[in-house]
Amino acid sequence: MSAVTRPLRWQDLSAVASLEQLLHPDDPWSVATWWAELAERPRRDYVVRVESEQLVGYAGLDLAGDSADVMTVAVDPQRQGQGHGDALMEHLHSRAARAGCDSVLLEVREDNRAARGLYDRHGYVLVHRRRGYYQPSGVDALVLRRSLGAEAQEGHDV
Ligand SMILES: CC(C)(COP(=O)(O)OP(=O)(O)OC[C@H]1O[C@@H](n2cnc3c(N)ncnc32)[C@H](O)[C@@H]1OP(=O)(O)O)[C@@H](O)C(=O)NCCC(=O)NCCS
Fold first, then answer.
1. Among 79, 110, 118, which residue has the most ligand 1 atoms within 8 Å of its CB, making it the best to mutate?
2. How many whole angstroms separate alpha carbon 81 and alpha carbon 125?
3. Which residue's CA is minimally distant from atom 31 of ligand 1?
4. 51 lines ligand 1 (CB under 6 A)
5. Per-residue b/e over 48-80, b at no fewer than 16 CB within 10 Å?
6. What's the CATH code of the domain at 124?
7. For ligand 1, what atom is nearest to the CA of residue 116?
8. Low-confidence ranges of the chain (pLDDT < 50)
9. What local confidence, expressed as pLDDT, does residue 149 receive?
10. What is the 3 state secondary structure string of 20-69?
11. What is the model's pTM?
């Protein structure tokens, strides 16, 4: 059975909030925050990656005019390193292109090696550094951007 990516539904929120707690123990999004994000659709666009309806990961975008922002991307620690992060990023890029965006922006902690490896792999480049953004650790935030050249072209041809 292979994993599929589909739109986030309210029925997914408790599983998503539990994985969020596991992955971001210091500042997890609460269930209430997730309900608020769902209420922001279609500007906010979230998906889950599931295998036999078991949650493997989730990701989302803020579709803001000609550029989109990655709001979150996360994969169950038990399922990391298996290509699910890649699949979620590819989905976000084609979704942003279909919405008419020509670039995607995101923010990542400088010490988040796995996420930086994923974004590097998908062609993101550093456009700004926010010194000491993450407190109390004092870790910098890196603002990364990638253009949606090919995807945007495909989107327009459709
Ligand atoms: C970042 C994250 C989503 C990656 O998901 P994943 O499913 O493990 O990623 P994939 O298996 O698709 O890996 C794709 C690429 O990402 C990079 N990558 C993934 N894990 C990595 C690690 N631990 N160290 C360095 N690079 C890594 C590699 O380039 C990898 O390609 P490769 O396997 O051919 O080397 C996952 O580690 C995660 O959920 N982290 C916690 C939440 C988080 O930090 N989200 C990002 C917030 S900005």
1. 118
2. 22
3. 118
4. no
5. bbbeeeebbbbbbbbbeeebbbbbbbbbbeebe
6. 3.40.630.30
7. 26
8. 156-158
9. 78
10. HHHHCCCCCCCHHHHHHHHHCCCCEEEEEEEECCEEEEEEEEEEECCEEE
11. 0.94
Residue 102, token pair as written in the block: 């020509």
Q: Write the burial class of residue 20 (CB in 10 Å: 0-12 exposed, 13-18 middle, 19+ buried).
A: buried
**Residue 11: both structure tokens together:** 């029925």
Q: Report pLDDT for 153.
A: 58
The pLDDT, as a whole number, for residue 157 is 46
Q: Is 75 in the pocket of ligand 1 (CB under 6 A)?
A: yes
Domain ranges, residue 75: 4-157
CB of 60 sitting under 6 A from ligand 1:
no
Residue 136: cis peptide before it, omega within 30 degrees of 0: yes
Structurally, the chain folds into a number of domains equal to 1
Determine the pLDDT at residue 152. Answer: 64
Helix (H) or strand (E) holding 94: helix 84-98
> Token pair for residue 83?
């290509």
- Residue 42: asked if its preceding bond is cis (omega within 30°), the reply is yes
**Using CA positions, which residue lies closest to atom 32 of ligand 1?**
81
Mutating to test ligand 1, I would choose from 80, 88, 89, 104 the residue with most ligand atoms within 8 A of its C-beta, which is: 80
Element (H, E) at 74: strand 67-75
